[in-house]
Structure formats: C-alpha cells, structure tokens
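[Meeting: bench + compute handoff]

Bench side (C.D.) handed over the final construct sequence. Compute side (W.E.) agreed to return the predicted structure before the next meeting so the bench team could plan truncations. Sequence as handed over:
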Amino acid sequence: MIHVRLYFVAPQNSRAFIAAFHDGGLWRGSVRHTCPELIGIDLLCSRTVPALFISTEFWISEYAYGAAWNLSVMSSLANFLKSLGVVCVDLGAFSFPLRDDVKVAGYRPA
C-alpha cells in the first residue's frame, strides 16, 4: 500500500523539511524506528514550485499504516511539521489496480 501526501512548506524552512526526510532525519528515523511495517519513504520536490513536495510512504498494509498513526510519536512529528510552517494535504492510500487476467485468492469483484 502506498500513502501519498502533498506538502506546502514555508520557503525559509525547506532545507529543514528536506533534511527530516533524509536517512537519519527526524521524520524518517522516528517512523522507521517505531513502525517496522513501513517499507520506505520517498520525497519528491516540484520542479516549478520549490516549496511544494509530495511524499510517498510504502507500507506492508493499510492496517499497518492506520495503526502507526495511532502512535504518540506520529502526533509529535505532525507538530514538528507544523512548526516548520508546513501545510499537509493527505491524498490517501493508493495501490496498483488488479489486472483482469490475474486471479487473486479470496478476491470477489464488486
């Protein structure tokens, strides 16, 4: 499962925001430490709007993602982002569509 967020960052705080997502950064380090169900995080920066970012988080399941957001560390991280002047738009969960020619055990199309 892939979870996608759109971030608008105060321009003067872009470096701190980017650093938080790098290896060893506050966001990546805290989430990886407390949520082993997280496979990885990628951060993309807009080529035309320097203060616009998209993050993609790869989780083993939607359940694991939901459980992670009930941890206290996640509210602390959200407050950290707010302190950087970050506005976050949660675009939600995405997954690859099922192909018609692949049969999945237990799956019944609606």
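W.E. noted at the follow-up: The radius of gyration is 16 Å. C.D. will use this when planning the next construct.
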